[in-house]
Specification:
By secondary structure, the protein is mainly alpha-helical. It has one domain. Helices cover 79% and strands 1% of the residues. It has 16 helices and 2 strands. A two-stranded antiparallel ribbon has the order 1-2. Helix 6 runs antiparallel to helix 7 and helix 6 runs antiparallel to helix 11. The longest helix is centred in the middle third of the chain and has 44 residues.
Length: 493
C-alpha cells in the first residue's frame, strides 16, 4: 500500500512520541540520584521552620533556626553512617532483608531517642574544653555551631567513601577544634583527649577479641561436633541467655538513663536475672525448633536467626537513646545559650529538638543507609547468622566492660572491630586446619602464596580505608571546626 499524506503524518508523530519518551526516560534516570538529597533537604527546611515556630519569640532566633537546620543535617548523617553498624551484620547474614532492617532500625532508633534519650546533655562534650574559655554566649554559640557543621560534614564525607566512622569522635573533634580556635591549646582537657585517642585502639581490638572468642566457642562446641543438633540444643539456649542478660545490662547502663538511673552493680544483677529467665524460655523453644532438623550447618543458622534480629533491634534502641545527643547536643546548647544568654555545663534538651534528632536519624537511615549496611554486612568479610551473632554480642559486652573500666569507647569502632575479629579468626582457623591436615599426612595439596593471599577472608583494602578514616576523624573534624569557627567569628558579628 503506497504511503499517503495521512500515513506519513502518523509516522512522523510516532517518531516524535518516541523521542519524547526517550527524553522522559533520560530525565527520570538523571533525576533518580537526586531524590534522596531532595527529601533530605526538605527535612532540613522543615526542621528550620519548626525551630522558627518554637523559638520565634526570642531574640537571635535566626541563629537557632540555622543551628536546627545543621542539627537535622547531622542527624541525617548519623542515620546514614552509624546505624549501619547495628543492622549490617544481620543483613549480611541474610537474617533480615534490607527493607526489613531499615524498618526495624528506624522504629527502634526513634523509640530509643524519644523514650529513653537523655534529657540532659553536656554542652562541653564530656569535659573536652574548659567552659571558662568560651564563657561568652556568642563565642560559645559560634563554637557549638562550628562543631556541629564540621562533624556533619566529616560524617557525610566518610559515608560517601564507604567508611563507617564514629560520630561521637566527630563531635569530639569538632568541639576540640572550635575550643582551640576560641581559647587556645590550654582550653583543651588533654588527658580526656588522650583517653579518647586510646579508645581508637581499645574499642576495635576488644570488640574483635570478644567476637572471635564467641565464634571459637561456637565452632568447638556446636559446629564441629558429630551431633550438631544435640550440641545446639544444649548450648544455643545458653548463648541466648548470655545475649539477653548482656543486653539487659547494656540497656540499663546506656539506654535507659532518662527512665531510670542504675549503676553498674545493679545493671549486672538485672542482666543476670533476665539471662536466667531467658535461658528458661529458650531451652524448650530451641528443642521444638530443632526437632527433625538435618545434622548440618544450614540447620544451625536458622537457630541463630531470631536471636540475631532481636540483638540488632536492641542495639538500635540503645544507639538511639545514647547517640542522639551527638546530633542534638550542640543544638540544645545553642538554644539554651540564646534563650538565657548564659553558658551552662548541663542543659535540658527540648522535646522539639529531640524530635529533630530522632526523625533525622530515621530519614538518614532510610535514604542513605543501605550503602554502609552493605559495607559492614558483606563487603568486609562474609557473615552468617552465627558470625553476625558474635559481632552483636561482642558490641554489647565491650560497652559494659568499657563502662566498668571507665574508658570512652565508640560503638562504631566496637561493631566494625567485631566484624574484623570474626574475619581474621576465620583466616587463622583456616590456616591452622590446613597446616594440621598437611602435618597429619593429609592429601591437601600445597597452595601457592599468591593463591593464599587471594583467598584471604578479610578485604585488606576496606580494612586500610576504615582504619585510616578512624585515625583522621578527630584531627580532620577539629581542623574543619577551627576554620568554620574563625569564619563565623570574623564574618558574622
Amino acid at each position: 500500500m503506497p504511503d499517503t499524506p495521512d500515513s506519513n503524518q502518523w509516522k512522523t508523530l510516532d517518531k516524535d512520541l518516541r523521542r519524547i519518551s526517550q527524553i522522559e526516560y533520560a530525565t527520570s534516570y538523571v533525576a533518580r540520584p537526586l531524590i534522596a538529597p531532595g527529601i533530605a533537604l526538605v527535612f532540613m527546611v522543615i526542621a528550620g521552620l519548626g525551630a522558627a515556630l518554637f523559638f520565634g519569640t526570642y531574640p537571635n532566633n535566626t541563629v537557632v533556626v540555622v543551628a536546627a537546620v545543621f542539627g537535622a543535617y547531622m542527624a541525617l548523617n548519623i542515620g546514614a553512617n552509624d546505624v549501619a553498624n547495628n543492622m549490617g551484620p544481620a543483613v549480611g547474614a541474610n537474617a533480615l532483608t534490607m527493607s526489613g532492617a531499615i524498618v526495624i532500625a528506624a522504629i527502634c532508633e526513634s523509640a530509643g531517642a524519644l523514650l529513653a534519650g537523655g534529657d540532659v546533655v553536656s554542652t562541653i562534650s564530656k569535659g573536652i574544653i574548659d567552659p571558662a574559655g568560651v564563657s561568652e554566649a556568642q563565642i560559645f554559640t559560634w563554637a557549638m555551631m562550628a562543631a556541629l557543621i564540621s562533624a556533619a560534614l566529616w560524617v557525610n564525607l566518610a559515608t560517601r567513601i564507604g567508611a563507617p566512622v564514629s560520630t561521637t569522635h566527630s563531635v569530639v573533634g569538632g568541639v576540640m577544634g572550635a575550643g582551640i580556635a576560641a581559647a587556645g591549646l590550654t582550653a583543651v582537657n588533654w588527658p580526656t583527649m588522650g583517653a579518647i585517642a586510646a579508645s581508637w585502639v581499645i574499642s576495635p581490638v576488644l570488640g574483635g577479641a570478644i567476637a572471635a572468642a564467641f565464634l571459637a566457642f561456637i565452632k568447638s562446641r556446636i559446629i564441629y561436633r558429630e551431633d550438631k543438633i544435640a550440641s545446639a540444643q544444649r548450648w544455643v539456649p545458653v548463648l541466648v541467655g548470655i545475649m539477653a542478660g548482656t543486653f539487659a545490662t547494656y540497656l540499663g547502663l546506656k539506654g535507659l538513663s532518662r527512665v531510670v538511673s542504675v549503676n553498674l552493680g545493679a545493671a549486672l544483677l538485672i542482666g543476670l536475672g533476665v539471662g536466667v529467665v531467658s535461658y528458661g524460655f529458650a531451652r524448650p523453644m530451641i528443642r521444638r525448633q530443632s526437632a527433625g532438623m538435618e545434622n548440618r550447618n544450614r540447620s544451625l543458622k536458622s537457630l541463630f536467626a531470631l536471636p540475631l534480629v532481636l540483638s540488632a533491634a536492641l542495639l538500635s534502641f540503645a544507639h538511639g537513646a545514647n547517640d542522639v545527643a551527638n546530633a542534638v547536643g550542640p543544638l540544645a546548647a545553642i538554644v539554651h545559650a540564646n534563650e538565657f544568654g548564659v553558658v551552662s555545663g548541663q542543659v535540658a534538651i527540648p522535646m522539639w529538638v529531640m524530635v529533630i534528632g530522632a526523625f533525622g536519624i530515621s530519614f538518614g537511615l532510610f535514604l542513605f543507609g543501605p550503602k554502609l549496611i552493605r559495607m559492614v554486612g558483606s563487603q568486609i568479610t562474609k557473615l552468617n547468622p552465627m558470625r553476625a551473632y558474635c559481632v552483636a554480642l561482642s558490641a554489647a559486652i565491650t560497652v559494659i566492660v568499657a563502662s566498668w573500666l571507665g574508658l570512652p569507647v565508640s560503638s562504631t569502632h566496637i561493631a566494625v572491630g567485631g566484624v574484623f575479629g570474626v574475619g581474621f579468626f576465620r583466616e587463622w582457623y583456616m590456616e591452622k586446619r590446613l597446616r594440621n591436615n598437611s602435618g597429619n599426612g593429609g592429601t591437601a595439596k600445597r597452595i601457592p602464596l599468591e593463591e593464599r593471599r587471594r583467598r584471604k577472608l578479610v578485604r585488606r583494602s576496606h580494612f586500610m580505608t576504615i582504619v585510616a578514616a578512624w585515625v583522621v576523624t578527630v584531627p580532620a573534624a577539629g581542623a574543619m571546626s577551627a576554620v568554620i569557627f574563625l569564619f563565623l567569628k570574623t564574618v558574622i558579628r
